[in-house]
Amino acid sequence: VQQISGMLMKLFQRVRLEKPGQVDPRAAEFTLSLLVAMYDRSGTGYIKSRSAAAALIALSGDTLLAKYRAFFQFYAVPDGNVALITRSALRSLLTDLNQIPAIVGEGCTLSCVEMATHSCFHGVLNSAIVEEKFLSWLRSEPAVLLWLPTCYRLSATEMVSHQARCR
Fold this sequence. Notes:
Number of strands: 3
Strand content: 5-15%
CATH class of the largest domain: Mainly Alpha
Radius of gyration: 18 Å
Organism: Cepphus grylle
InterPro entries: EF-hand-dom_pair (IPR011992), EF-hand_dom_typ2 (IPR015154), KCMF1/Dystrophin (IPR050774)
Domain EF-hand: 65-154
CATH architecture of the largest domain: Orthogonal Bundle
Number of domains: 2
Number of helices: 8
Helix content: 55-70%
GO biological process, one term: synaptic signaling
CATH topology of the largest domain: Recoverin, domain 1
Strand order of the largest sheet: 1-2-3
Protein name: DYTN protein
Structural class: mainly alpha
Order of helices and strands: HHHHEEHHEHH
């Protein structure tokens, strides 16, 4: 938690310099509180860096494709010249991401994660999949992660501006 706190301080400090006046001075504190609430409910003082990274990626303002690629990079394992994501790595990713809606009482059950993992690996004979298969599955908007593209679309509409006058 201390290491993540330090990284968040540096991250938000850098963003404050790039975008003066757009970042709350307590952003690092608020973000850390959220991460602790999601990933350290028992107060051990320990959060897996991969879990924290997944949450930060999911909550970032980046495109969905960029988020999906980043998830793959953080959870995939190297296998020769390619990276692959295994069933257990996918389960870990989905469990980590499920903590985000769970914090507001909207999480799904463990069986939901299992069903999603099964659907991703449906028809796959190997124990792991390549990035393209992973991205293809995510683009199909599996129910367990439906909140992610929905939140992305909502945030994207905030940037839309119509040059119309109302009476």
